[in-house]
Design goal:
Helix content is 32%, strand content 16%. With 114 residues, the chain is α+β, with helices and mostly antiparallel strands. It has one domain: Potassium Channel Kv1.1, Chain A, CATH 3.30.710. This is BTB domain-containing protein.
Length: 114
């Protein structure tokens, strides 16, 4: 994800996400903290109040080295899927959530707002 050719770039992202951009599906990272502060719904996506299916299948001993090792990604089981959302609107909402106000146009057309 280093050479990203799309505007969905958020520094210090720790949660994977995907969205439609143009005619393709892109993947990028979002800040879990920004999402949690912005919306209680997004907070439940990032920190679900239920066990994830992949963690239920993990039958590791609780004290084994493999069970205690830190995961490669902070949220390895979570990928937020925004592929059905309007990419222009999604980008604006995510920029607001990540406090990237200078990157948001100062005037938005009615088409974008609607």
């Amino acid at each position: 994800m280093e050479n990203q050719e799309h505007p969905f770039v958020f520094k210090d992202g720790d949660v994977r996400a995907k969205a439609k951009y143009g005619e393709r599906i892109i993947t990028f990272k979002l800040s879990s903290h920004a999402l949690c502060y912005a919306s209680p719904v997004w907070k439940k996506f990032v920190f679900p109040p239920f066990h994830l299916l992949s963690s239920l299948g993990n039958k590791e001993e609780p004290n084994s080295k493999k069970a205690c090792a830190a995961p490669e990604e902070p949220f390895p089981d979570i990928e937020l899927d925004f592929t059905e959302d309007n990419p222009e609107a999604l980008l604006i909402v995510l920029q607001i959530a990540h406090l990237k106000f200078p990157e948001i146009l100062s005037q938005l057309s009615y088409k974008v707002l609607y």
